[in-house]
Design brief:
This protein is of the alpha/beta class and about 300 residues long. The protein is built from 13 helices and 5 strands. Helix 10 links the parallel strand 4 and strand 5.
């Protein structure tokens, strides 16, 4: 890594993954720690080596994903019952909970959650109840979902415009770290401008100083789902269900490259071609860009 060209390279980088690729482990002048600091990435991520996932674990996580997509209200206790009863899976509640945490999912039913209590200073109220969302870029919703592959998995971060259902930003990541969330928000704002409000759940990727800081820097109000509220972030949840049942579950994706190509193709289709009943069978792009005389979205 050459220091004079570092700022230029960094400015041109669009994601954490690309910044990670700029690290030169053979550089004798700049230590790994110094390079990580200059590139604004966590040093521990440079030493992380993913642990191979067994075929049995992948299969169980696949079942959990399909069950949860159809029934997002299921917590780990009910999920365990379903896995044992309907799929003859030998699994206990502890392992089910571990898998669901690894996948970044939890049931909508409220319950004790020590990690959220520890992050209580980062919890914000839900601002959308009773709000007349009547134009694009008024409210965006952001969330993360598990995306299976034949021999592994990735995570999809997506941002949807609440009014039009238009996907304004997305990122595929190998981890659940908040860096992918920050990158997605930055790219969406750069391309489409900033919304007045961004809504999210109370997951650790959103209840932290860095996430809240990027919103405050851009003058965006923070809204968070109420604890145990199934419908508070319904726009992005419905998009994820459509994405999985209409595309992800229909084929086996071998590599991250194949998955990325599919996600790009589907989101282009979803934004520009897929008609929505709630939009009077218009597309999200028609509503977002006001391409026609449109009825009020419901």
């Amino acid at each position: 890594m050459k220091l004079p060209g570092l700022k230029k390279n960094l400015a041109n980088s669009k994601s954490r993954e690309e910044r990670m690729n700029l690290v030169d482990r053979a550089d004798k002048k700049l230590s790994i720690s110094r390079q990580a600091k200059l590139l604004s990435i966590n040093r521990t991520g440079l030493y992380y080596k993913p642990v191979p996932v067994s075929s049995d674990e992948l299969w169980t996580m696949r079942l959990i994903d399909e069950i949860y997509t159809a029934h997002p209200e299921y917590g780990y206790r009910r999920m365990t019952k379903i896995l044992r009863r309907d799929y003859d899976t030998c699994i206990n509640q502890k392992r089910t909970r571990r898998y669901m945490r690894k996948m970044g999912i939890q049931g909508f039913c409220p319950g004790p959650n020590l990690s959220k209590r520890l992050n209580s200073k980062y919890i914000y109220p839900y601002l959308l109840r009773g709000l007349d969302i009547n134009r694009p870029n008024y409210v965006w919703s952001i969330d993360i979902t598990y995306c299976r592959m034949k021999h592994g998995f990735m995570y999809l971060v997506a941002i949807i415009d609440w009014y039009s259902r238009y996907i304004v930003g997305y990122t595929l990541s190998n981890t659940l770290e908040k860096a992918a969330v920050i990158d997605t928000i930055k790219k969406a704002i750069k391309k489409y401008g900033r919304p007045e409000i961004i809504n999210c759940d109370q997951g650790s990727q959103f209840t932290n100083a860095q996430y809240l800081g990027i919103l405050k820097e851009n003058g965006i109000k923070v809204s968070m789902d109420g604890k145990g509220r199934a419908l508070d972030n319904q726009r992005i949840e419905r998009f994820f269900r459509s994405f999985k049942w209409e595309k992800l579950y229909l084929e086996e994706y071998q590599t991250g490259h194949e998955l990325r190509e599919m996600v790009k193709e589907y989101i282009d289709y979803y934004n520009w071609q897929r008609p929505h009943q709630s939009l009077g069978y218009k597309t999200p792009a028609e509503y977002y860009f006001n391409l026609a005389d449109l009825p009020k979205a419901v």
